[in-house]
Amino acid sequence: MDLPNSVDILGHPYEIVMKEDLLDCMGMCNTDQCIIYISTTSSDSQKLDTLFHEILEAFNYQLEMKLKHRNIQALGNCFYLLLKSNPDLVSMFIQKNKDEDEESKLKVGFKVDKDKI
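User: That's the sequence. What structure does it adopt?
Assistant: Structure tokens below.
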């Protein structure tokens, strides 16, 4: 499975790096260097689950949420399973964002008063 090369987390581009030797963990988030490491030895589903977990680790750090690791683990699993179990929801979200992007391209930079047209 090919994960994206990077992900935007709260306005910061985090590089996603596949790494073989992560000691005894499946992933790590280096918030100082904005890098997420994912173990190459994990299964495809575990790589995605780990990516969600590490994204939540970055949220926790940047927003100073002070979540415990077990809470981050639970939330990561929940998000992974939510998206995996509901592909129609994911598709709908992607389409909605595409529609909004297209609509914003049509705007010309000034407000039109529809009552005066």
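The CA atoms of residues 93 and 99 lie 10 Å apart.
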